[in-house]
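anyone seen this seq b4? input:
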Amino acid sequence: AGQITLTAKLTDGDSPITGATVKARLKSDDGKTFDLVLLENGKNGIYGAVSEKLPNGDYNIEAIATHSNQS
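predicted toks r here
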């Protein structure tokens, strides 16, 4: 069992997108899901999170970012 570190970089062209909400869902091969909220790291468009300890296995990760009512 271990943790997963997720990092997302949000940009509009070359400009960083700040103030967004970024959520990720990890889904294991056996169908269990784990939700994470990625937090902004400064004002550079970088968002990140570390999961809880997860069971060994493969995971599918889906992330959604919203900003000003847009995805």
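The mean pLDDT is 92. The chain is about 0% helix and 55% strand. kinda curious what u guys think
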